[in-house]
Amino acid sequence: xxxxxxxxxxxxxxxxxxxxxxxxxxxxxxxxxxxxxxxxxxxxxxxxxxxxxxxxxxxxxxxxxxxxxxxxxxxxxxxxxxxxxxxxxxxxxxxxxxxxxxxxxxxxxxxxxxxxxxxxxxxxxxxxxxxxxxxxxxxxxxxxxxxxxxxxxxxxxxxxxxxxxxxxxxxxxxxxxxxxxxxxxxxxxxxxxxxxxxxxxxxxxxxxxxxxxxxxxxxxxxxxxxxxxxxxxxxxxxxxxxxxxxxxxxxxxxxxxxxxxxxxxxxxxxxxxxxxx
Length: 277
Hints:
Blueprint: H1 3-11, H2 23-34, H3 43-60, H4 63-69, H5 78-86, H6 89-93, H7 98-105, E1 113-120, E2 123-137, E3 149-155, H8 177-187, E4 192-193, H9 195-224, H10 230-248, H11 255-261
Antiparallel strand pairs: 1-2, 2-3, 2-4
């Protein structure tokens, strides 16, 4: 970019990653709460998450790495590569708050949750997280007189529903929580009340939407960083997206950063900003 194009590039930064200045995001966030979203993380903590991820990736992929590949300096990069390998998602999560980790993991959540150790050859190798939902029957259900309610349990990560005597009365195949919710709505809404399940499905959807939006903002902050060039910021942002997609099994795209990089900066269009999420 020319000097003038570079100025226009930064002038057109909408700073979506600054949540306290992102009016559209704050309006949307408040509307979600008004509509019944079960809030567990506030805007300040979300902003802190953006800032931590931004700082982590600027440290993980330092300017001198780019200088090296551009042929500007010669260094022994054994130490650098070792540091980048150590700065994985596990180490990153170790430095985040409980709520930030909870949002990034995007698991199902309810007021009834339990963890169970997983053993292999007598050695603990992990933890299984379970969520529980109370399903109420009404008089239209043929099992109402025997039991007026029952409990559905499922894996908090995959949503796979555990089969047992009660749930097998309504399903014939293995299902996840989304499939179960659809089944209940289509076939049993006149027989069962499943508000806890419905709330969990809605909360997970919004949790994941917020997570993906915040990660998108991180990629934009990396791109627009004035500590580097747009080209290097773009590379960092792509690496960030690729690593989160791989480690957390996400489907983040380059769409927003590509849109920014492919824009024509010969003229300054910052005076006609159109702000969106």
